[in-house]
Write a structure and sequence with these properties.
45% of the residues lie in helices and 18% in strands. By secondary structure, the chain is of the alpha/beta class.
Length: 240
Amino acid sequence: MGKAFKTFRGSGKSLILAINDPTFNLQQLTDLLSKAPEELGGVKVGLPYMLRYGVRQLRSVFQEYPSFYYLADLKLADLGEVMALSVNELINSGFDGVVAHAFIGVKGALDVLKKTLEDVGMDLFLQVSMPHPGSEEVIDTTYLRVKNVINGVNAEGAVVPAKKSYLIKDLKNTFPSIVILASGILRLGAQPGEGLCYGADSEVVGRAITLATNPSAMAKDVINMQRDYLVKNRNICVKG
């Protein structure tokens, strides 16, 4: 099992921070990590943030706080050899995993990416769906084929909107060892704890924390909201 499984599965690490907006600067990130509640398992870094601060500066933060899981949210969707070049730029960066879109398929794409990631000791997360309405028009219509893709590349993780509980439950049942991250919490309509209730291992929260006056306090508030949701909905939540 990869680091993602060890970090999130059954560990109580119910929260992963998403950072996309570069106005949440590196000093703020460092401050948050230094005061992070134990339930914070990692950081999902989006492309805008990487473009602003660069891999080298991010690596210095990661090295200072090595216990967290760092996921490069590149949402790769290209030819395998092109995606492999992107991964090669992340070698020794401190990232533990990379996000790619599942809909691009296996042959000549994700199979190449997966092999490259294995060679450098990184995990593959697949973006199974997205929280915006357009995802239902195209991406979600391919879900049965996406399941074949997940199986075909033996992905370590999946990113799924928390509001799409039917996808989370089905993935958990079909792929019991895959790490499921539930996105779209608060800012995109899902409540903290909603994804966890239906079987996700951790929930992705971004702007609700990074735009808060006190991000570390807000992170703790989110964790408390997760607990409250699970208690209130314990009769319908997925067990185990």
